[in-house]
Amino acid sequence: MKGKTHAGIGAITFMSVCDKIPGGFTYIGILIVIIASLMPDIDHPKSIINKYILPFKNKKTKTIMYLGFALIVLWVNYLYTREAALNALGIVFIFVAISSHRNGLTHSLVGLIVFTFISGYLGEIYDVSFIAYYFMVGYGMHLTCDMMTKMGIPLFYPFKKKKYKFPFTYRVSSKKGNTFEDFLIIMGLAYAVYRLPAIL
């Protein structure tokens, strides 16, 4: 699924459930959900996030950059802070560096748990309440949506490398796939117009 579709579905899902999760609807919340909706694709060198991070959009650059990030985070944490969440972040960067798209940590339940844990820790440091709930909504919806594609996701990685998908799937970037994603976006915008007055 394309990045813009992930971001849109994450935002719409948040608007749908915001009155049922701690913190309710906030503008910071919807921003966090959108970022979390894009986060699993960080293992792809041409993803929306890497578009602003990587100087060259290829696998080699992604590997070198994220290994560099990992070394910096782990070294600074070892010297100064000794925080478990930063160690987890460094390890995640290593997995991102060595993972190919949809074949590793970022598209698994373990990735969801680790990233949510890190986001919750950062929320405590910077006093952003309920960030873990917002992050879980965005990240979880990304995984759910990718299970609708023919490629599927390694949901139980690293324990199982088998890819899981729903019975009815579509091929990303195909004509039918693009039409389906456009339809989802249009329906989502219509729902947002309907829902927004009730939550503001």
TrEMBL record:
Q: Which UniProt keywords apply?
A: Hydrolase, Membrane, Transmembrane, Transmembrane helix
The record, for InterPro entries, names:
YdjM, YdjM-like
Pfam families hit by this protein: YdjM
Q: Which GO terms describe its molecular function?
A: hydrolase activity
State which residue ranges cross the membrane.
24-42, 63-80, 86-105, 112-135
Q: Does the keyword tRNA processing apply?
A: no
Q: Does the keyword Transmembrane apply?
A: yes
Indicate what this protein is called per its UniProt record: Metal-dependent hydrolase
Query: Which species is the source of this protein?
Result: Clostridium aestuarii
Taxonomically, what lineage is the organism?
Bacteria, Bacillati, Bacillota, Clostridia, Eubacteriales
